[in-house]
């Protein structure tokens, strides 16, 4: 007697179909980028923005041999960190040790650093009700007052800075409060970094910034033109996990490079 045939077992789970890719995204996928060019852009960013250890790791991962002056990069990093922490005198000394012509040839940058130093003296003097403002007044008279008459902008900046001694620090108007904002230190630190790069014959702005600017500009123009063939959101492509791409050899280093760059990016 023939045994009854058992029904075939079926899987209890069903696979979710992959959503179709937008034609624009597929067009991007079809563009073949040169890995050599991409590596060069990333390496340039890491060097110009001051990430010597990341640059060394990336060079090993990408199997490239760049002209990497680690000491020069580290010196720029130390200068930027000194400015960011408010140690302006140390930063000025390091700049002059690295290349004294940088400040000699850029009076506006030198004045900005001196004004930051004055702001730090005022910050210290006004931290307590009985703070001594004499060091701030002496510094302003000796180092900034002689430079102010040569430039109207210098004079206005000095007058605005000295106003910090008059008004209470916890109730400042926005233009005065901005002088005590750490963002001003970062702005001057970036200008110093660019000046040092220029003195070394390097680009003052990493190409990666230009690429992001161009991509963002094109994206905005396409949205304004209401192109129907574009997706609602166009990823910049820094993080492969967010746009469906597989992680590549450059993935980890690119993400390390992208994070600080994107947070500090803006039109210039």
TrEMBL record:
InterPro entries: CRA_dom, CTLH/CRA, CTLH_C, LisH, Ubq-SigPath_Reg. Residues 1-22, 238-259 are annotated as: Disordered. Residues 1-16 have a biased composition (Low complexity). Residues 246-255 have a biased composition (Polar residues). Pfam families: CTLH (PF10607), LisH (PF08513). Residues 72-129 form the CTLH domain. Involved in the proteasome-dependent degradation of fructose-1,6-bisphosphatase. PANTHER family: RAN BINDING PROTEIN 9-RELATED. This is CTLH domain-containing protein. It comes from Letharia columbiana.
